[in-house]
Please model this.
Amino acid sequence: MYKLRLKILLVFFGLAFAVVIVRLVDMQLFCGQRYRDAATLSREEVELLPNKRTTGQRGQILDRNNRILAEDRPCHDLHLQYQFLVSDPKWVAKQVREIAAEQGLNMKVGFEADQAREVYDQRAANTWELARLLASFRGVDLDKTVSRIKRRTQRWQAARDRRGGGQIAERKMSHPVVTGLDTNDVSLFYSNADKIVAASLVPGHKRVYPQGEIASHIIGITGLVTKGDKENWNLTDDELRGRQWVSGGSFRWFDLERRRHNYFDADSIGKMGVEKAAELWLRPKRGYRLSPRPGEVSAQVLPEPGRDVQLTIDIELQRRITEMLADKGYTGSVAVVSVDSREILALVSFPTYDLNTYRRDYNKLAGIIPKLPDKPTLEEREKYNQAKIDAMRSRTYLPLTNRAVAAYQPPGSAVKPVVALAGMTDGKISPHSELTCTGKNTLARNGKPRCWIGRAPHNSAHGPLDVVQALKVSCNIFFVKVGQALGHQRLCYWLGEFGYGKLSRTGLPEEKPGVVGTAEWLRKNRDRGPVPSDKWYMSIGQGTFDASPLQVANAIATIAAGGEFQSPLLMVPRIEKPLIELRWDFVASLSPEKQAKISTTPERLSYKLPLSPQHVAAVHDGMYKVVNEDGGTAFKHWNVGDPLQFKVCGKTGTAQASGHKIDTNGDGRRDTIVRQGSHAWFAGFSPHNRPQVAIAVVIDYAPGGGGAYAAPIGKEVFRICEELEYINGRD
Amino acid sequence: MLPAGKSWYVPRVASIFIVIAMIALIAVGVAAIHVSEHAEGPGGGGRWEKQMIFAAVGLVAFLLAVIVPYQKIGSQAYIIFGFTLLLLVLVFFVPAVRGSHRWIDLKVFKLQPSELAKLSYIILLAWYLRLGGHYRKLIGLVPPFLLTLIPMVLILREPDLGTAILFLPTLFFMLYMAGAKLRHLVGIVVIAGVLVLIPISRSTQGMTPGEIKERTATAYWTVGNEKKPRIIVSAAILAAMEKHQLPRISGWLQQGDADAIKNNGFHLYHSKIVLGSGKFIGSKDWIDAEWYFSILPDDHTDFIFSIVGGQWGFAGCFLVLLLYAVILILGVEVAATTYDPFGRLLAVGVIGLLVSQMFINIGMTMGIMPITGMTLPFVSYGGSSLVINCIALGLLVNVAQRRPILLGRRAFEHKEDTSHAPYRPLEGF
Model:
């Protein structure tokens, strides 16, 4: 029995050996290369270029004539050592010792040590003075910045303590206190360099917007990367591993590429407008340097500056339109689109703001009222009152909203050409068939919607009208009847075909699709199915129908081009480096969901609508008469002032809208109506016989109708287009 | 034929190969320690020379352990054991080093009583079990278990989990070979296993976030929000563990988890990297090797096998295993050919101790066992461990030298009737 047990014991030991050997074979013989790769990876020192805190230059944003809208300019940041900010006694003692060594003082001798300490105190005072001076040049509150740095560092240290201790590196680093210093500041710094302590200048970049207030809604702004941005953009460990197994690529390459691609804490990223939409082009990429041993380089990839982005905007046109709106004192927006290529020539939203001072003015612009201190001085109270007035003004006039793509208003009669074309193409009316206007809607018991002529002070009716006449006088009843004949579904279909209720696909992140009251939309948002009045109101551009000026301008351009629909174009695709060519770029290896999140440049749509030339001609004729024939809705106000060189086809619109309510007492309820009236629209194209430019103008809460208020603005816009030769040739 | 009483000083075949294997293992160990030191760069030197001195001391101790008849050592088993227990108690009155009371500083070298305890425990257990019989009843198993628990508890208090755990496999091997009933042993293992793994729930109240994270990682399941669990249900042994012991377990359970690699699994991950990157023949590029080894902490003691694997690859590891196998097989042969019950149990105990240590240590370097502080016998750096292991092997050789010699067949036993021979030395092999 003993021998048998000995045998069993031996088998047992043999099993243990077998387990170890099997595992050894698996690790060393089968997976050896993987482990060796991992070892190499942890062995090589990866140094990011330029470094982890800074990146290269971000790309420029240019207008169609290569004028600069946004660029990175080199500048310097003033950094102060953290120990200096908190006057760490150990660090101070070390500085004093260094000063003593520098000046040949003996620290063991009492008065000489005091002398060194005095020198240090003097230098510290100089440093603060210089920092304060530079901060005042840049308009920065130094004390606030410093206390923010201290608080942040303490917070991080506390977080580290909770996780198990150790001193964070930030407590021994220098922190930027004044950023964006120019050459004069730099020379001031260096002329005092021997009299200060703990301060350093670090080269960096500053985003500058030379156009100031012009086109700020389109250009957008950059800001520091947030946690959410990192989640969207950065590749995580798990994704990296999954990607590596899927592609079979080397782990090392992917890991390095990821380091180049990922954002770090101090990086900036586009937050709004083109800066956000074209982040992929604009962002600079880091490089890296691999060193197996200190001082030795085994591989190096240089940092890439960001690529430039060209916009189709003409900044001169944009500027003149903005200034014109400012002169007239209206708030509203203007979209100018070229008919052939659908390039957006100008996309004005007014009021606007200066991008260079955006951060400083943010509270004012966003309508945030700062807190009043507990026991305010007179000065503080005055400041608070002024801030409150500014905030209320911003809440009323919404300077941050990009009205041209993001604010949706009912387009009113400006949509009637589309409805006319829809009715004719579907065969519900012919260019010559006449419908009778009685001043009110005979389909509804209460007669609503009424024609404008059926209301006071006119109280009359248009009588029988054909399409051309109906467009010219902008008869509501005619189009209500067309809408009734089309039916709800076809009406929505045609509006959608002309781009209403859909994203314009310029790529701007602010863009919203607007509203077309389809059965689906109504069920989702109004909790009901379509009712007959929906189509009546929608066919005159009211009710469950909102559109942006850009959508209206593009619809008009589509009509002007005889039914050629294209999505408007804002960013010029770079032939030399289109996005698809980045296939080997790292972004292409991100998961599709992430790609969808970070790339906001959608594919453009382009299709030809099946419109007959006779029908288009009838609509053109109607729009021509709106402006150029006596009795047209825009005629009276169009003929004031100098005539244009080219004839214009247009359509006015007066869209009734609910008033703009704001919260004035801070209880969270919007209690006071601050603006009311109708939105005045004008949409048109020029020249009338060979369209080149299509525009849409909307004046928010205008005191009167589109003919009186929007049409003159439209005329001025066409005049500026003529002067800049976007409308040209022989008439 | 030599006179029976003096036969021990003629080297026997088994003894010669055991000694060769032992010296080869020590040589591999010294080379590996040299390699690991090289990776540390200037300033980290001197260990391999020290290990050579330890080896010399170990060889002397080995010779002494061979010369003194093992029966005489056995007769002093209680005194030796008592002395060891005294040292184990004494160690608590010595100032702690790195938070544990493991070493007694004797100026010349640092004595680690727990290492000595392993050896004296084997001698005592073999001495106790040699008379046989009583442990074939369940109640008879109580004294051996008590004998085990005394040093185990003392060593656990040091704390030195790795050494303490080692007592259990040794006990089971020896009881099994002494003839304890298998169903008793299996029953004890099953009951202990169930007790250790039984789910115990704990409320997270009063725990730090770090502790909650560790306990969640090692739990069977949790109740409540995944990020902020209220009740954690884990195995009894894990629930009873202190929070500073848990990271080793969680690091072991979460192998391949990117987050764990940076924290709890750091040791294991790097050990695997170094071991795996050896491939078949090891790293030829000395600079590469330096880098590999510099990322592995404790590489000269507990993780020496990773260094062997990284430097000499599968070939080197296989050689080490082969050397252990030589000792194991020859040891079993010695156990089989000795008649003396004390000698048999002593041989089994020594083999059981060595194999358990080897398996646990190598297993932890490759991630099949959780990390416990345990040396690889003869290879790891460390004086106490090396000398004690040498003495243990000396006892094995001692037994081997004093077993009956069979130069030929016994008188009047012929080839055709060997099957009836009362004694066949190599039966079963």
About this structure: Chain B has one domain: 9-187+257-403. Strands of chain B lie at 104-105, 110-111, 199-203, 221-224, 229-235. Chain B touches chain A through 48 residues (CB under 8 Å).
